[in-house]
Amino acid sequence: MNKEDHCGIVEDLLTSYIDKKTGKRTNDFIEEHIASCEQCRSLLLFKREKMESRKGIIDSLKNIKRLKRSRAAAAFTCVILSVVLSFLVYGSEYKYSNNKEELSAAITDYTSHGRYSADAYVLETKEADGVLIVFFKDRSNPAVYGFARLLKGVNQKYRLIRANFSPSDYSAVVKSYEFETGKGTYYAIGGHNIDSSIAAFGLRFITGFESNDKEQRITYDIKNSQFLEVYKKSALLDLLSGNEDARAEYFFDPFHTALLNKEGQEITEDYKRADIADKNWSSGTGTAELFLLNFFIGFILILGFILARYFLTKD
Q1: Under CATH, which architecture does the 172-272 domain have?
Q2: Is the torsion defined by CA of 156, 160, 162, 167 positive or negative?
Q3: Residue 200: beta bridge partners?
Q4: What distances in angstroms separate CA 223 from CA 15, 84, 110, 127, 228, one per listed residue?
Q5: Residue ranges of the domains in the chain?
Q6: Residue pLDDT, tens place only, 283-295
Q7: Side by side, which strands form the sheet with 131-138?
C-alpha cells in the first residue's frame, strides 16, 4: 500500500480519532502516519480547530438555553412568591370561619378595646350576599345582645367589620339589625328566650313618629325559642298594603318589634324587665376600610411582575 492510500485512510479516520472513537491499533497507525506526513498533520490540526470551534458554538447555545430556562424559572418563582405572599397578607384579615366557637372568641376580642366589652356567645349565624350576620349574647351580662357583621373574602373566610350590642328591655328578646350588601338593604331579626306563649313577632313599619302617621305590621310565626332571620327591605315593603308610591313612604321601626300570642294579641310588655340597672347605653365597634392592606397587596403583586419581566427580558 503506497503513501497516498495511507493518506486517504487516515483522512477518513481523523474525525473519529479527534472524537476519541478509534481503538489503540488505529490510533497507533494514525499517529505513526502523521508523524511522517506533513499534509495529514496539517489536516488534523485544521479538523481539530474546526471541531473545537463547532463544539464551542454548541456549548454556547446550550448555555444560552440553560440561562433562558433559569431566567424563566426565576420569573415564575417571583410571580408565585408574590401571589403566595399577597394571599398570606390577605388571609391575615380574612381569617374567620363560620364556626360559633371561633366567632365567639373573635367578637369577644374585637369588642374588648371599647368602652363596653362583651364576652360573646354566638347564638345563630346567617349569610346574605357575602355578608355573614352573627347574633350573639353577652355571657357576663344576660340582658345584653348584639349583632356582628363579617365580609366573606375570596379565600372563603370572613373579616369582622362591625359589632353592635346593647341591653334588651325584655326577657324574651327579639332584636333587629339593618345592614347593607352590594344587592340592597337587609334586616336581621334575632330572637332568644322565646317561650311557648309567644307565637309570632311583628315588624312595625311607619310613615313617621307623629300620632296621625300611618302604621303597618308584618307578622312572622316563631318556630323556635332561638332564631335568626334575614329579610330584604324591598321584599318586606312589597308585603305592605297600598300602591308602590304609598309603600315607599314607610320605613322600618327597629324599636318596637312586637311579641304576639296565638290569638294575635300583643304581649310584648308582659316580658318587660325590671332588673336592669343601666340600660341606656349601646356600643358599636367598627373597622376602617382596608386601604393600606389593599395597597400593600397591590404593591407586592406589581413588584413580583416587575421582577418577572426583568428576568424574562434581560439581555
Answers
A1: Sandwich (2.60)
A2: positive
A3: 221, 260
A4: 95, 46, 32, 20, 11
A5: 3-65, 172-272
A6: 877 776 677 778 8
A7: 120-128, 131-138, 141-152, 158-167, 283-286
